[in-house]
Structures are given as structure tokens and as C-alpha cells.
Amino acid sequence: MDGIVFGICTLVGIVGTWYSTRDAWRLRERSEYRIARAARAVAFGVCTVGVLLAVPAVEGLLEELTGMNNSAKLGAHICAVLWCGSLQLMLVDWSYNHEVLKASLYARIALGITVLAAMLPLFIATTGPTMEFTTAFAAEPGVTVYLLVYLTYVAITCGEIAFLCSGMALSTSRRGHTWTSRGLATSAAAAVLGVAYAISKGSYLVLHYLRHPWPLRYEEIVSPLLAGLATVSLITGLTMAMVGRRVTQRKADQPAV
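Request: output the structure for the sequence above.
Response:
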């Protein structure tokens, strides 16, 4: 299941990264939304790396090459934090005015750094030759705390992404920007799926701690599906919004007939 889901995510991520990077490079001289374009390209790039590391065959190969157990999982989780943080920076640049932009950017960068600073010591203290940072090892307190820190950040950031995308979708819809509105609405729905992923995985960990977990086999199916759907939908939605903005700008630049 993981190989199929994250393999598809990798292919979608490659296409999205190429298109977004090309767009950012082509418009590099324009100061408007420069942060957003760069952040979007970075977000798609690190997401592609992260989902590639989640493919079991790639995960096994990386751990064999590095000689470090869980190296692929740590890399995938770091990429997920960078992915969520970059999307926040993109949407903040789109949504906030210049007066509060810097403070908003710094606050989100600080939150991402804090989360990584909490995750790394937990990983170092917990990892071992037979340990895996998955819900199958929820009996290990270090694994549970590590994953809950990571999942809490995912839930918070995806919640903000859903809120900002839905607000912008309504705004652009009123102005008649159909494709941009649809792309942002798709992105908002994808972010809700991201929250659902965090809740799915996190609830299993919490209920396992309380001695009443739901069946692990269901969690191992539901959580990867939610993560995969969220990733594909978010890249697709933001690409649609990007294309919609370009079409709108081209129409605005055309002389009236």
C-alpha cells in the first residue's frame, strides 16, 4: 500500500516541482509574490523528496547505504515539516499586507525550527537497530512523543492552510477567477485531509496509551491513504491556482478590442 500511494505522490510531485520552479524562474524579476513563488517551488521539491523516502524500497536502500536505522523516516518527517512550513510562507505572502508580512513570516519560521529542535533530540534518544518510528511501535514512549510532536505541527499548519485557502477561494470566486478559485478550494480540501491524517495517526497513539487503540491494520491503511490524497490534491490544487493566476494576468495584459 505505501509503495503505491507514495510512488504516485512522487510522480505528481516531480511534475508539480518542475512546473512551479519554471514559473518562479520565469517571473523572478517581479517583486510581487516573489516569496510565494519561491516558497511554493521549495514546498513541492521537499514534498517530492519526502514522499520518495516513504516508498519502502527507497527507505530500505537509504538505510542500507547510510547504515542508520530510521534515516529515511527522519528525512521524510523533516521534509514534511519543511513542506508545511513552506506552504505557510507562500499563503502568508499571498494573504497578508506588507505591514504584518515580516512578523508573520518570522513567526512561522520560528515555529518550524522549534518543532525540528524538539524532534531531533527525541529521535536520537529513541532510535535503535530494531526500532521503527511508526504506530506499530506505539508501546515505546519515545516513538509516541516524537510522532505526536510531528503530527501536532502537521495538524496546526494544515488547519491554517485550509483556512487561508478557503478564504482566498471565496474571494477569487466573487471576482470571477474560476480556475484560481477551484484550485484554492481543492487545496483547502487537501489541507483538511492533512488534518484528518494527523488525527488518524495521533488518535491511534493516544488511544494506545490509554489502552484502547483501534485496530492497527486499519490505521496502517487509512493514514497512508489520507496522506497520499492530501499530497496529490494539494499539489494539484495549487498548480491549478497558479495556472489560473497566469491566465488572469494574460487576459488583463491584453488590449481591449
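Residues 122 and 146 are 6 Å apart (CA to CA).
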